[in-house]
Amino acid sequence: MQYYTLTLPTLPVFSRVWSDPTASELAQIPTGQLYLVRPNSIKGSRECIFNDAMITIRRTATEFHFHLVVTKVYADGDEPTLEEDDECEDEKVFLLDEAIRFRSSTFESTPSFQWADIDGDEGDFFEFVAIGTNAPTAGFFETSALKAIYERKHLRSSESASEFELAAMAYKPPPPRPVRKQSTPKANKVAEAAPAAAPPESPTPVKTKPKPQVKAPPPEAESQSSQVSERPTVVDEEAQLYLWESEPAEQFALQANIRASIVENDEYDYYMVAVEGDTYWLAHPISSDLNGRWSKALLSFTWSHLSKEGVASSWCFRFPDVGAFQRFQNQFAQCVWETSHKQPWGKAKADEQQYAIDSYSYDQDVEMENASDEEDDVEDVLSTVDEEESGDEDDSEDEHAARMPDAGGKNKLLANGYKNGLSYIARGKNIGVFRKTEDDQLEYAATISKVLTPQGKQFAPKKMMLHQQDATLVLMNEQNPNSLYQMDIETGKVVEEWKISDHMEINSMAPDSKFAQMTPGQTLVGTSHNALFRIDPRVSGNKLVDSEYKQYATKAAFSSVATTDKGGLAVASEKGDIRLFDTIGKNAKTALPALGDPVIGVDVTADGRYVVATCRTYLLLIDTLIGEGRYAGSLGFDRSFPADAKPMPKRLQLRPEHVGYMGGQVSFTPARFNSGPEAEEQYIVTSTGNFVIAWDFRKVKKGRLDRYDIKQYEQQVMADDFRMGDNKDIVVALSDNVHLTKKQALVKPTRQSLAGPSVRSRSDIVNAPY
């Protein structure tokens, strides 16, 4: 066994890396293997954890705190599955602290690094064998680790630390104890004759067991328990309770063995409760705000919670068997349905009940039909590498913000044109015009001031849509909901009022077909709270086309509409149901039951294969391809699904631990596919709070539902969408500023990317007074 003598690299090398606060990775060895060594275990003394791995020293958001990160390296086409990600098998994170007893060593003449397995048995330790690494590189990495340990211990910079002070941070195994029993001369002769035993390749550290951490319920648990302690129980199962902890490593930590139950607090008001003996750990109200996520593979349910004091946390129930998991899940689905619909579960139709239950029990790891093959997997890896490389070249710090002159109000609406790289932002009673520059920035171009009706009355557009080859903007006016207004973009004036009906208010609109914006066609479609109709500005009098009009007798509560390239229509409602039509004036070909949460926006792929519906805390992705029966191979826009084979939506939602880092609340803006006549849909983009979020649509179709990237801004994101025909540029309208963001600028969600400050200096803001 060999130990390296610590030799500090030249001072400029460390100064350059450690003095740069933006450098997140301070040292890295790209190739090696990770082992768990158990000298005292009967299972075997050496277990390979990662056969191909890299080791990194990473800066954390907390000053003077650093992580030692070992990441599994995958070959092309061998990307981890969602289940593997859930089990956190591709990365191990350790806090660099004296307690882990970090030291350098060798294994079969190869440099290695060792540190204690704090959670293991006495004497267990990890060893990273740095295959192909020379002594200077290994020395640099070791010194970097010791500097990190020094800074955590002393809570100050290691820049002035001496070589002796750094060397003192390395763990030194205690010397072997002297042999007390005297050997006999005969034994000595035997010992001399026998070959010397080979020294162990790795030292066995002596480990002092840390004091067990006492787990305790959060302070609010006591007040919560008094509210539900005497309430009737709906379901009660044995489970383990976990709480997400970010230190020393990001993981769910076991808190207690508990009884997980749901209690009825009041009519249509339920609480999820965890009790250990007579101790209440939590009592959280059941609602969509939980951001609940089920895992069949782990028999677990994770969710986020925001306390009355504004403290966000993430929790997990893990059930002992499939039966307990399914019983709790089924009752949870019923309680959510009752809470959302404000009516008893028994009033739901049998197919609606099954649909609601199946929406939770649907296996998230099952791929959508025809979504994946080996070539797709290879292409996935290559495209990811391309994005990362281009992202390195495209530093997000080069992104500038444009801003229209202050004229009252905040940015609200966004419409991207296909001509001249123009985007339109509604702000109060004005509309700002922004253009893309040759250097891929966004600049303020002009303001359409004081939007006026033909009668001269100012109004703030409620919704707007580009029309007739981007020559006009169609505007909705909340003060006059029976009409639409046509604005000539060249003159910046409203030139016509289109009265739809004397008795019907329009609440959403869409082009005749997905890309009708690029044609001179004049008609468009609209909805009221209970009707779907076509609008033709050329007809005299009211502009509603009587022959293309479908009204429902009961309140349908329609909220949004979208069209396919062939003119199929997807109509969503505040109740949460979704209808698919092949044409206007007839019954829907497909009607999907409501899960209970209002749909605030809907979009479709150009071919009509997929629909994305936005609810406040999650997105629903629906595959409209009919997979069986008489009309197998057709789409739900053209034919009806068999009654017992309706498409089951996939929920796209943020992981509870990410929601905790983001402040505990989610409120999505309407999600959109990237789109264009020649473009394939590859991403789904939305936002919540100060964050832009994009799901990789290709991976979502393969069942990887939590594969999303994210970017934080200094202001609330009001609207965002890809530029027409582009899958790289996202126009982001903040409350005051407007950004053109590269898709590659969005990053994998981590504690740092979600919770860290992201406020730009005023010098980055393009202020364009007029």
Distance separating the two termini: 74 Å
Assign the CATH superfamily of the domain at 11-172: Pleckstrin-homology domain (PH domain)/Phosphotyrosine-binding domain (PTB)
- Beta-strand content bin: 25-35%
- Structural class call reads alpha+beta
Number of strands: 43
Total of helices? 12
Fraction in helix: 10-25%
Gross morphology: globular
User: What's the level 1 CATH class of the domain at 11-172?
Assistant: Mainly Beta
* Level-2 CATH architecture of the domain at 11-172: Roll
How is the CATH topology of the domain at 11-172 named? PH-domain like
Largest β-sheet summary: 7 strands, antiparallel
Structure description:
This protein has 770 residues and is α+β, with helices and mostly antiparallel strands. Among the domains are: 11-172, Pleckstrin-homology domain (PH domain)/Phosphotyrosine-binding domain (PTB) (PH-domain like, Roll); 221-361, Pleckstrin-homology domain (PH domain)/Phosphotyrosine-binding domain (PTB) (PH-domain like), CATH 2.30.29. Helices cover 16% and strands 35% of the residues. It contains twelve helices and 43 strands. A seven-stranded antiparallel β-sheet has the order 4-3-2-1-7-6-5. A hairpin with an 8-residue loop joins β26 (531-535) and β27. It is globular and about 100 Å long. It starts with 10 loop residues before the first helix and ends with a strand.
